[in-house]
Design goal:
With 425 residues, the chain is α+β, with helices and mostly antiparallel strands. The protein has four domains: 2-91, 3-Layer(aba) Sandwich (Rossmann fold), CATH 3.40.50.20; 119-185, Dna Ligase, domain 1 (2-Layer Sandwich); 191-316, D-amino Acid Aminotransferase, Chain A, domain 1 (2-Layer Sandwich); 325-422, Glycinamide Ribonucleotide Synthetase, Chain A, domain 4, CATH 3.90.600. The chain is built from 14 helices and 22 strands. Bound molecules: glycine.
Length: 425
């Protein structure tokens, strides 16, 4: 069996790593991949945002399955093109990926199917958006409608920040993605991600995970793609989890009732309000960095799960999970999420991988003349598994301390909220 994984971040290293543990012993390809996937797969150079190029590669290099990590190839219709040439794709077609590609599409879908979420209005004229802002007041959330690599969302606590966010969208900071602006009610409560495998009918939830989107300790600083994550999430009790699962099931059923055949991962970004979980966003793919703590705890063969997903027989699968805790700390380039320098030598990854329970997933890395160097904002995801959250946290930071590169930055409080909720901090 030959499998092509699309993407080159920590998420894709975690996917490749889980696939490499499969009893099917697949031959793995990853594009563009990174310094970590290079150890488990053949990295290939393809323009992953151009689906025609991927299809051309697959025609020359037949594979049994394509697994799509990032959202852009899905939103531009990679799964549709692969269907035309009969290649199974783990990831929805463009109609389903719209749930991530357009916030307005997602909001309208939720409204049609009674999915709890914050009140929102969309604007394509700046003055109308500013007028609505004055009426609503702060705190409030301003979002570019389209894809903006996690950077198009501003949680504005004061009116000036909200005005600036609206202006930035209309002045083109996020390109076409910001031509329409969604202004959304601010919801209060802890955030939690729950991802599920779905074949459009059956929904199999993964483990709840809590991401840390802000750059600095104490949830301060600008939003990032995610600075660290942990699972399990103690604030998610069984009733809350059941409601989150029900929301994912109702969303998949809602899409199916509208003729959307959704196969892949549905990612629910939830906020746990006093009135129960509400949807902040949906994504049409695995989360990054959520995948780096969730997939290492999956005991079921990931190839079997993915094949069952694309072949619409997920009802045959029972997911089995380890009871361990997992913590992943993102090591980032100095300056991230702003500008940063690339190609800085990285030391200590092999030593970090020696810490019991630790796997260092590569994100923005590459090999240059045989040496590992930085190649992105989020560079490495130091992931530790242990029987307790406290031990997982200790192991993750012990391993992170063994790694160094010039300008390296990371949050020191990943998993702390879990310990606080458990009364252990
Ligand atoms: N963890 C945020 C995301 O995957 O979009």
């Amino acid at each position: 069996m030959r499998i092509l994984v699309i993407g080159g971040g920590g998420r894709e290293h975690a996917i490749v790593s889980a696939l490499s543990r499969s009893a099917h012993q697949p031959e793995l390809f990853c594009t563009p991949g990174n310094g970590g996937t290079a150890e488990l797969a053949t990295n290939v150079e393809i323009d992953i945002e151009d689906p025609a190029t991927i299809v051309a590669w697959v025609e020359m290099n037949p594979v049994d399955l394509v697994v799509v990590g990032p959202e852009v190839p899905l939103v531009v219709g990679l799964a549709n093109l692969l269907a035309v040439i009969g290649v199974p794709c783990f990831g929805p077609k463009a109609a389903g990926a719209e749930i991530e590609g357009s916030k307005i599409f997602a909001k309208d879908l939720m409204a049609r199917h009674g999915i709890p979420t914050g009140k929102a209005e969309a604007f394509d004229v700046k003055e109308d958006a500013l007028k609505y802002l004055e009426e609503q007041g702060v705190p409030i959330v301003v979002k570019a409608d389209g894809l903006a690599a996690g950077k198009g969302v501003t949680v504005a606590m004061d009116i000036e920040a909200a005005r600036n966010a609206i202006t930035a969208c209309f002045e083109g900071e996020f390109g076409e993605a910001g031509e329409v602006v969604v202004i959304e009610e601010y919801l209060e409560g802890p955030e939690c991600s729950l991802l599920a495998f779905t074949d459009g009918t059956t929904v199999l939830p993964m483990l709840p995970a809590q991401d840390h989107k802000r750059a600095y300790d104490g949830d301060q600083g600008p939003n990032t793609g995610g600075m660290g994550v942990y699972t399990p999430v103690p604030v998610v009790d069984e009733a809350t989890r059941a409601e989150m699962v029900s929301i994912l099931e109702r969303t998949v059923a809602g899409m199916a009732s509208e003729g959307i055949d959704y196969r892949g991962v549905l990612y629910g970004g939830f906020i746990l309000t006093a009135d129960g979980p509400k949807v902040l966003e949906f994504n049409a793919r695995f989360g990054d960095p959520e995948t780096q703590v969730v997939l290492p705890l999956l005991k079921t063969d990931l190839v079997d799960v993915m094949l069952a997903t694309v072949e619409k027989r997920l009802s045959e699968i029972t997911l089995e999970w380890s009871d361990d805790a997992a913590v992943s700390v993102v090591l980032a380039s100095g300056g991230y999420p702003g500008s940063y320098t690339k190609e800085i030598p990285i030391d200590g990854v092999a030593e970090a991988n020696q810490v019991p329970g630790v796997t260092v997933f590569h994100a923005g890395t590459m090999l240059k003349d045989g040496a590992l160097v930085t190649n992105g904002g989020r560079v490495l995801n130091v992931t530790a598994i242990a029987p307790t959250m406290a031990e997982a946290r200790t192991r993750a930071y012990e391993a992170a301390d063994k790694i160094s590169f010039l300008g390296m930055e990371y949050r020191t409080d990943i998993g702390l909220k879990a310990l606080q909720a458990l009364g252990e901090a």
